[in-house]
Design goal:
119 residues, mainly alpha, Transferase(Phosphotransferase), domain 1, two-stranded antiparallel ribbon, 4 helices, globular
Amino acid sequence: MFTEDDVKFYLAEIALALGHLHSLGIAYRDLKPENVLLDADGHINLTDFGLSKESVEKNGKTYSFCGTVEYMAPEVVNRRGHTVAADWWSFGVLMYEMLTGDLPFHGSNRRETMSMILR
């Protein structure tokens, strides 16, 4: 777990990074702690762009079912198409986890976790 001040700082930097990616038409699609690294000065770096989607038009949808299930937005789970807004859902899940040390949606298996997300 982090202090509230640390969480504010890290989330501000992550928000700037996501906003920049979105302004370039890139949906990140795999925001989770393992993909957020800290440099020697304590600033964040997003890594692992393997699931990212380029050329996403503003409000354009993508239909790939990808990401880490605990961080997936409902629109990704239900496979009806999602926009870059799905990254902001993952951002909220990450925020919750940083503040509490727990995930908001975590079942005993993938199916149960997805069901919890869709409730």
